[in-house]
Write a structure and sequence with these properties.
alpha/beta; Rossmann fold; 3 domains; three-stranded antiparallel sheet; 12 helices; 11 strands
Protein backbone atom coordinates (compact mmCIF):
# COMPACT_ATOMS: atom_id res chain seq x y z
CA UNK A 1 0.00 0.00 0.00
CA UNK A 2 2.82 2.39 0.90
CA UNK A 3 4.63 1.63 -2.38
CA UNK A 4 1.46 2.44 -4.37
CA UNK A 5 1.08 5.72 -2.48
CA UNK A 6 4.70 6.67 -3.13
CA UNK A 7 4.34 6.01 -6.85
CA UNK A 8 1.22 8.17 -7.14
CA UNK A 9 3.13 11.02 -5.52
CA UNK A 10 5.44 11.27 -8.52
CA UNK A 11 4.55 14.16 -10.81
CA UNK A 12 6.79 12.95 -13.66
CA UNK A 13 9.12 9.96 -13.72
CA UNK A 14 11.72 11.72 -15.90
CA UNK A 15 12.74 15.38 -15.78
CA UNK A 16 15.05 17.08 -18.27
CA UNK A 17 16.92 20.19 -17.12
CA UNK A 18 18.15 22.24 -20.08
CA UNK A 19 20.68 25.02 -20.36
CA UNK A 20 22.33 27.05 -23.11
CA UNK A 21 24.31 24.01 -24.28
CA UNK A 22 21.07 22.38 -25.44
CA UNK A 23 20.13 25.34 -27.66
CA UNK A 24 23.74 25.65 -28.85
CA UNK A 25 23.21 22.41 -30.75
CA UNK A 26 20.38 24.16 -32.63
CA UNK A 27 22.41 27.21 -33.60
CA UNK A 28 21.97 29.54 -30.62
CA UNK A 29 25.04 31.08 -28.95
CA UNK A 30 26.37 30.02 -25.59
CA UNK A 31 26.06 32.64 -22.87
CA UNK A 32 29.82 33.25 -22.89
CA UNK A 33 29.66 34.11 -26.61
CA UNK A 34 26.65 36.41 -26.47
CA UNK A 35 28.31 39.79 -26.11
CA UNK A 36 30.94 39.60 -28.89
CA UNK A 37 28.45 37.98 -31.28
CA UNK A 38 25.65 40.48 -30.68
CA UNK A 39 27.94 43.51 -30.96
CA UNK A 40 27.57 44.06 -34.71
CA UNK A 41 23.79 43.88 -34.38
CA UNK A 42 23.66 46.90 -32.09
CA UNK A 43 22.90 50.32 -33.51
CA UNK A 44 25.91 52.64 -33.80
CA UNK A 45 24.76 54.91 -30.97
CA UNK A 46 24.24 51.92 -28.68
CA UNK A 47 27.66 50.52 -29.58
CA UNK A 48 29.19 53.88 -28.70
CA UNK A 49 27.47 54.02 -25.31
CA UNK A 50 28.17 50.37 -24.50
CA UNK A 51 31.82 50.83 -25.46
CA UNK A 52 32.14 53.62 -22.88
CA UNK A 53 30.55 51.42 -20.21
CA UNK A 54 32.74 48.40 -20.94
CA UNK A 55 35.93 50.48 -21.10
CA UNK A 56 35.11 52.08 -17.75
CA UNK A 57 34.62 48.74 -16.00
CA UNK A 58 37.34 46.95 -17.98
CA UNK A 59 40.21 49.35 -18.75
CA UNK A 60 42.10 46.66 -20.69
CA UNK A 61 39.20 45.94 -23.04
CA UNK A 62 40.10 45.75 -26.75
CA UNK A 63 37.13 45.95 -29.12
CA UNK A 64 38.60 43.84 -31.92
CA UNK A 65 39.66 41.07 -29.51
CA UNK A 66 36.67 38.81 -28.79
CA UNK A 67 38.53 37.24 -25.85
CA UNK A 68 38.69 40.60 -24.06
CA UNK A 69 34.90 40.98 -23.96
CA UNK A 70 33.52 40.48 -20.44
CA UNK A 71 30.93 37.79 -19.83
CA UNK A 72 27.47 39.23 -20.32
CA UNK A 73 26.47 38.23 -16.77
CA UNK A 74 29.37 40.23 -15.44
CA UNK A 75 28.67 43.27 -17.62
CA UNK A 76 24.93 43.40 -16.86
CA UNK A 77 25.68 43.03 -13.15
CA UNK A 78 28.21 45.86 -13.35
CA UNK A 79 25.65 48.02 -15.14
CA UNK A 80 23.11 47.32 -12.40
CA UNK A 81 25.62 48.22 -9.69
CA UNK A 82 26.48 51.33 -11.69
CA UNK A 83 22.81 52.35 -11.77
CA UNK A 84 22.21 51.51 -8.09
CA UNK A 85 25.18 53.58 -6.96
CA UNK A 86 24.97 56.30 -9.61
CA UNK A 87 23.96 59.04 -7.20
CA UNK A 88 26.18 57.66 -4.44
CA UNK A 89 29.34 57.79 -6.54
CA UNK A 90 29.31 61.47 -7.53
CA UNK A 91 28.20 64.91 -6.48
CA UNK A 92 27.14 65.88 -10.00
CA UNK A 93 25.67 63.93 -12.92
CA UNK A 94 28.55 64.39 -15.37
CA UNK A 95 28.40 63.73 -19.12
CA UNK A 96 27.20 60.11 -18.99
CA UNK A 97 23.67 60.28 -17.55
CA UNK A 98 21.89 57.51 -15.67
CA UNK A 99 19.16 57.52 -18.35
CA UNK A 100 21.79 56.70 -20.97
CA UNK A 101 22.98 53.75 -18.89
CA UNK A 102 19.44 52.38 -18.63
CA UNK A 103 18.72 52.95 -22.33
CA UNK A 104 21.90 51.14 -23.34
CA UNK A 105 21.07 48.16 -21.13
CA UNK A 106 17.56 48.01 -22.61
CA UNK A 107 18.92 48.24 -26.16
CA UNK A 108 21.36 45.40 -25.51
CA UNK A 109 18.68 43.07 -24.15
CA UNK A 110 16.21 44.00 -26.89
CA UNK A 111 18.79 43.31 -29.59
CA UNK A 112 19.55 39.90 -28.09
CA UNK A 113 15.84 39.07 -27.98
CA UNK A 114 15.37 40.15 -31.62
CA UNK A 115 18.39 38.07 -32.65
CA UNK A 116 17.01 34.99 -30.89
CA UNK A 117 13.71 35.43 -32.73
CA UNK A 118 15.60 35.53 -36.03
CA UNK A 119 17.45 32.32 -35.15
CA UNK A 120 14.21 30.55 -34.30
CA UNK A 121 13.11 29.66 -37.84
CA UNK A 122 16.36 27.90 -38.74
CA UNK A 123 16.93 26.43 -35.28
CA UNK A 124 13.60 24.62 -35.24
CA UNK A 125 14.72 22.64 -38.33
CA UNK A 126 17.53 20.95 -36.37
CA UNK A 127 17.21 17.25 -37.29
CA UNK A 128 17.62 15.75 -33.82
CA UNK A 129 15.21 18.21 -32.18
CA UNK A 130 12.10 16.32 -33.29
CA UNK A 131 13.64 13.08 -32.02
CA UNK A 132 14.22 14.66 -28.62
CA UNK A 133 10.62 15.89 -28.52
CA UNK A 134 9.41 12.40 -29.42
CA UNK A 135 11.45 10.97 -26.54
CA UNK A 136 9.96 13.52 -24.13
CA UNK A 137 6.44 12.71 -25.31
CA UNK A 138 7.01 8.96 -25.16
CA UNK A 139 8.30 9.21 -21.60
CA UNK A 140 5.62 11.71 -20.51
CA UNK A 141 8.60 13.67 -19.18
CA UNK A 142 8.78 17.21 -17.78
CA UNK A 143 11.20 19.80 -19.13
CA UNK A 144 12.78 22.53 -17.02
CA UNK A 145 14.60 24.98 -19.27
CA UNK A 146 16.63 28.02 -18.31
CA UNK A 147 16.62 29.16 -21.95
CA UNK A 148 14.37 31.91 -23.30
CA UNK A 149 14.00 30.44 -26.78
CA UNK A 150 10.82 28.86 -28.15
CA UNK A 151 12.24 25.68 -29.69
CA UNK A 152 10.48 23.21 -27.42
CA UNK A 153 7.41 25.41 -26.99
CA UNK A 154 6.66 25.07 -30.68
CA UNK A 155 7.59 21.42 -31.06
CA UNK A 156 5.85 20.19 -27.90
CA UNK A 157 2.86 22.52 -27.77
CA UNK A 158 2.26 23.86 -31.28
CA UNK A 159 -0.42 26.54 -31.09
CA UNK A 160 -2.54 24.66 -28.53
CA UNK A 161 -0.75 26.31 -25.64
CA UNK A 162 -2.58 26.36 -22.31
CA UNK A 163 -1.52 27.56 -18.88
CA UNK A 164 -1.07 24.02 -17.56
CA UNK A 165 1.55 23.30 -20.24
CA UNK A 166 3.82 25.85 -18.55
CA UNK A 167 2.92 24.76 -15.01
CA UNK A 168 1.04 28.01 -14.43
CA UNK A 169 -2.05 26.56 -12.75
CA UNK A 170 -2.17 25.64 -9.07
CA UNK A 171 -1.76 21.92 -9.70
CA UNK A 172 0.87 20.42 -11.96
CA UNK A 173 -0.47 18.08 -14.66
CA UNK A 174 0.73 14.48 -14.44
CA UNK A 175 0.21 13.78 -18.14
CA UNK A 176 0.76 15.78 -21.32
CA UNK A 177 3.38 18.41 -22.23
CA UNK A 178 4.98 20.27 -19.34
CA UNK A 179 7.66 22.95 -19.82
CA UNK A 180 8.77 25.03 -16.86
CA UNK A 181 10.69 28.22 -17.76
CA UNK A 182 11.90 29.87 -14.54
CA UNK A 183 13.97 32.45 -16.45
CA UNK A 184 11.07 33.60 -18.62
CA UNK A 185 10.32 33.25 -22.32
CA UNK A 186 10.56 35.26 -25.55
CA UNK A 187 6.80 34.92 -26.04
CA UNK A 188 5.66 35.94 -22.54
CA UNK A 189 4.44 39.51 -22.02
CA UNK A 190 2.65 41.38 -19.29
CA UNK A 191 -1.00 42.16 -20.03
CA UNK A 192 -0.04 45.80 -19.59
CA UNK A 193 2.56 45.40 -22.38
CA UNK A 194 0.00 43.93 -24.81
CA UNK A 195 -2.86 46.31 -24.11
CA UNK A 196 -2.79 47.62 -27.70
CA UNK A 197 -2.38 44.24 -29.43
CA UNK A 198 -5.44 42.64 -31.07
CA UNK A 199 -7.28 40.38 -28.57
CA UNK A 200 -7.64 37.50 -31.04
CA UNK A 201 -3.85 37.31 -31.37
CA UNK A 202 -3.14 36.85 -27.66
CA UNK A 203 -3.97 34.41 -24.89
CA UNK A 204 -3.87 34.75 -21.11
CA UNK A 205 -1.33 32.44 -19.48
CA UNK A 206 -1.07 33.64 -15.90
CA UNK A 207 -3.85 35.58 -14.23
CA UNK A 208 -3.08 38.22 -11.63
CA UNK A 209 -4.90 41.19 -10.19
CA UNK A 210 -2.52 43.77 -11.69
CA UNK A 211 -2.00 44.00 -15.50
CA UNK A 212 1.74 44.39 -15.04
CA UNK A 213 1.93 40.98 -13.33
CA UNK A 214 -0.64 39.08 -15.44
CA UNK A 215 1.06 37.29 -18.35
CA UNK A 216 -0.13 36.69 -21.92
CA UNK A 217 1.43 35.35 -25.12
CA UNK A 218 1.01 35.78 -28.86
CA UNK A 219 -0.57 32.99 -30.92
CA UNK A 220 1.40 32.24 -33.04
CA UNK A 221 4.68 33.60 -31.62
CA UNK A 222 5.92 36.76 -33.31
CA UNK A 223 8.98 38.97 -33.37
CA UNK A 224 9.17 41.54 -30.58
CA UNK A 225 9.07 44.37 -33.14
CA UNK A 226 5.61 44.96 -34.62
CA UNK A 227 4.76 46.08 -38.17
CA UNK A 228 4.23 49.56 -36.78
CA UNK A 229 7.80 49.47 -35.36
CA UNK A 230 6.64 49.13 -31.78
CA UNK A 231 8.98 47.04 -29.62
CA UNK A 232 7.35 44.65 -27.18
CA UNK A 233 9.38 43.71 -24.12
CA UNK A 234 9.19 39.97 -23.34
CA UNK A 235 9.33 38.74 -19.77
CA UNK A 236 12.94 37.62 -19.37
CA UNK A 237 15.30 37.27 -16.44
CA UNK A 238 18.55 38.81 -17.73
CA UNK A 239 21.76 36.84 -17.20
CA UNK A 240 23.21 38.69 -14.21
CA UNK A 241 24.74 37.68 -10.91
CA UNK A 242 21.87 39.48 -9.15
CA UNK A 243 18.67 38.04 -10.63
CA UNK A 244 15.23 39.46 -9.86
CA UNK A 245 12.47 36.88 -9.31
CA UNK A 246 10.02 39.15 -7.47
CA UNK A 247 7.24 38.90 -10.07
CA UNK A 248 4.45 36.50 -8.99
CA UNK A 249 4.88 34.26 -12.04
CA UNK A 250 8.52 33.53 -11.17
CA UNK A 251 7.76 32.72 -7.54
CA UNK A 252 5.03 30.36 -8.78
CA UNK A 253 7.39 28.73 -11.31
CA UNK A 254 10.15 28.12 -8.77
CA UNK A 255 7.65 26.38 -6.50
CA UNK A 256 6.48 24.17 -9.36
CA UNK A 257 10.07 23.46 -10.38
CA UNK A 258 10.85 22.33 -6.85
CA UNK A 259 7.89 19.94 -6.83
CA UNK A 260 8.75 18.38 -10.18
CA UNK A 261 12.35 17.77 -9.10
CA UNK A 262 11.28 16.48 -5.69
CA UNK A 263 9.38 13.48 -7.06
CA UNK A 264 11.41 12.55 -10.14
CA UNK A 265 12.82 9.06 -10.62
CA UNK A 266 15.40 10.29 -13.15
CA UNK A 267 16.88 13.76 -13.80
CA UNK A 268 18.89 14.44 -16.96
CA UNK A 269 20.89 17.68 -17.25
CA UNK A 270 21.48 18.63 -20.89
CA UNK A 271 23.77 21.56 -21.64
CA UNK A 272 23.25 23.02 -18.18
CA UNK A 273 26.46 23.69 -16.27
CA UNK A 274 25.19 24.83 -12.84
CA UNK A 275 27.19 28.09 -12.93
CA UNK A 276 28.48 29.22 -9.55
CA UNK A 277 26.65 32.55 -9.75
CA UNK A 278 23.21 31.00 -10.37
CA UNK A 279 22.46 30.72 -6.67
CA UNK A 280 18.68 30.61 -7.04
CA UNK A 281 18.80 27.62 -9.39
CA UNK A 282 21.33 25.92 -7.13
CA UNK A 283 19.04 26.43 -4.14
CA UNK A 284 15.95 25.07 -5.92
CA UNK A 285 17.84 22.05 -7.25
CA UNK A 286 19.10 21.34 -3.74
CA UNK A 287 15.53 21.61 -2.42
CA UNK A 288 14.46 19.03 -4.99
CA UNK A 289 17.18 16.56 -4.06
CA UNK A 290 16.49 17.08 -0.35
CA UNK A 291 12.76 16.44 -0.76
CA UNK A 292 13.40 13.21 -2.65
CA UNK A 293 14.51 11.74 0.69
CA UNK A 294 12.40 13.79 3.07
CA UNK A 295 9.15 14.18 1.11
CA UNK A 296 7.36 17.28 -0.13
CA UNK A 297 6.08 19.70 2.50
CA UNK A 298 2.29 19.50 2.54
CA UNK A 299 -0.53 21.02 4.61
CA UNK A 300 -0.24 18.15 7.14
CA UNK A 301 3.51 17.70 7.14
CA UNK A 302 5.70 15.98 4.60
CA UNK A 303 4.31 13.51 2.08
CA UNK A 304 5.95 10.06 1.69
CA UNK A 305 9.38 10.42 0.09
CA UNK A 306 9.78 9.03 -3.41
CA UNK A 307 13.51 8.33 -2.98
CA UNK A 308 16.68 9.38 -4.76
CA UNK A 309 16.51 10.03 -8.48
CA UNK A 310 19.23 8.78 -10.79
CA UNK A 311 21.15 11.72 -12.21
CA UNK A 312 22.75 11.95 -15.64
CA UNK A 313 24.69 14.78 -17.30
CA UNK A 314 25.10 15.54 -21.00
CA UNK A 315 27.85 18.13 -21.31
CA UNK A 316 31.33 18.40 -22.88
CA UNK A 317 32.57 20.02 -19.66
CA UNK A 318 33.58 17.10 -17.45
CA UNK A 319 33.50 19.32 -14.35
CA UNK A 320 29.72 19.76 -14.57
CA UNK A 321 28.99 16.33 -13.08
CA UNK A 322 31.24 17.20 -10.13
CA UNK A 323 29.39 20.49 -9.55
CA UNK A 324 26.00 18.76 -9.61
CA UNK A 325 27.40 16.06 -7.33
CA UNK A 326 27.95 18.73 -4.65
CA UNK A 327 24.19 19.41 -4.39
CA UNK A 328 22.92 15.84 -4.93
CA UNK A 329 22.21 13.66 -1.91
CA UNK A 330 25.06 11.73 -0.36
CA UNK A 331 25.51 8.42 -2.13
CA UNK A 332 23.87 9.48 -5.40
CA UNK A 333 26.16 8.92 -8.39
CA UNK A 334 26.07 11.71 -10.99
CA UNK A 335 27.31 10.28 -14.29
CA UNK A 336 28.22 11.96 -17.59
CA UNK A 337 26.61 9.89 -20.37
CA UNK A 338 27.34 12.04 -23.44
CA UNK A 339 28.91 15.35 -24.44
CA UNK A 340 26.17 16.81 -26.65
CA UNK A 341 22.40 16.54 -26.98
CA UNK A 342 22.52 15.20 -30.54
CA UNK A 343 25.02 12.52 -29.48
CA UNK A 344 22.76 11.46 -26.60
CA UNK A 345 19.64 11.40 -28.81
CA UNK A 346 21.38 9.14 -31.35
CA UNK A 347 22.63 6.87 -28.57
CA UNK A 348 19.18 6.72 -26.96
CA UNK A 349 17.55 5.78 -30.25
CA UNK A 350 20.11 3.07 -30.95
CA UNK A 351 19.89 1.50 -27.49
CA UNK A 352 16.11 1.62 -27.13
CA UNK A 353 15.07 0.90 -30.73
CA UNK A 354 13.26 4.21 -30.52
CA UNK A 355 11.61 5.28 -33.77
Amino acid sequence: MLRELVLTNRIRETVYVLGAGFSKGCGYPLTRDLLPQVWERLKAKDQKSLLKIIQFHHPNFILNDAKSFPLIEQLLTEMKVNADLYDGSRRYAGNFKEEQLQETRSALLTTIAQWFHELYQSARKTPWLKDFVNIVNEQNAAVITFNWDLLLDHELLGEEIQSQHYGLLDELPKVGPLILKPHGSLNWYSTEELNRARPEKRRVLFEWKTPSDAIELFIPPRAIKSRTSRNYSPLLVPPTYIKDFDKPIFRHLWKQTTEVLSTARKIVFIGYSLPADDLQAKFILRCGFHNQREGLIGPRGRTPATGDATVQVINPDKDVASRIQTIANRGVVVSTVASYAEEWVAKFKAESNFL
